[in-house]
What does this fold into?
Amino acid sequence: MNPGDFAGKWNQRHQDAEGQGSAAQVLLRNRHLLPRAGKALDLACGRGANAMLLARSGLETHAWDFSSVAIARLDEEAAKNDLRIETQVRDVVAQPPAANSFDLILVSYFLERSIIPALIQALRPKGLLFYQTFVRAVHLERGPSTDAWRLESNELLRLFGDLQVHYYREDGSISAEPTDVADLAMIVASKGV
Ligand SMILES: C[S@@+](CC[C@H](N)C(=O)[O-])C[C@H]1O[C@@H](n2cnc3c(N)ncnc32)[C@H](O)[C@@H]1O
It folds into this structure.
């Protein structure tokens, strides 16, 4: 699939979806780790529930996605809520963030391994990374059908092993009951402390 078709598919999904989506558990469970100020990026933000939470927390918030529909819906919601969010329609694989540009980067439900080194580079000293996405061990029928877009066990720890880890949780199919964090891995890590 060429990049244009892929963005078109996401435009359709964002057109059909209701609301802004839900903020990521990695953020909801670790709000106490957010800095009081600084420049934050919600990467591949979709309709921007996480960006809205970051902006409400007082951070200078940027939100990027290659879906123009998602970004238009986020702009509209941010305006309604009197929140300032700097949005961009941007292919984050072709154009990842520049080195040393953010105090916080949040990624939820987006996995493109080729840009992980750029994300690490994009963090400023002491900058925080919040990352959450699906693992391969499956409890619930949700998330990507392709294994390549799901994490291997402990993979976030390997991908961000050079950072200081503050929080890690991985719920595969180990628990007896599926929960709201079933099939997810989450990490909060910083570039030094
Ligand atoms: C599963 S959604 C997650 C959205 C949001 N982060 C959330 O948690 O609700 C994946 C998002 O990645 C975006 N996306 C996929 N490939 C992209 C790329 N190369 N550049 C920018 N955004 C991309 C899609 O448009 C979609 O909004």
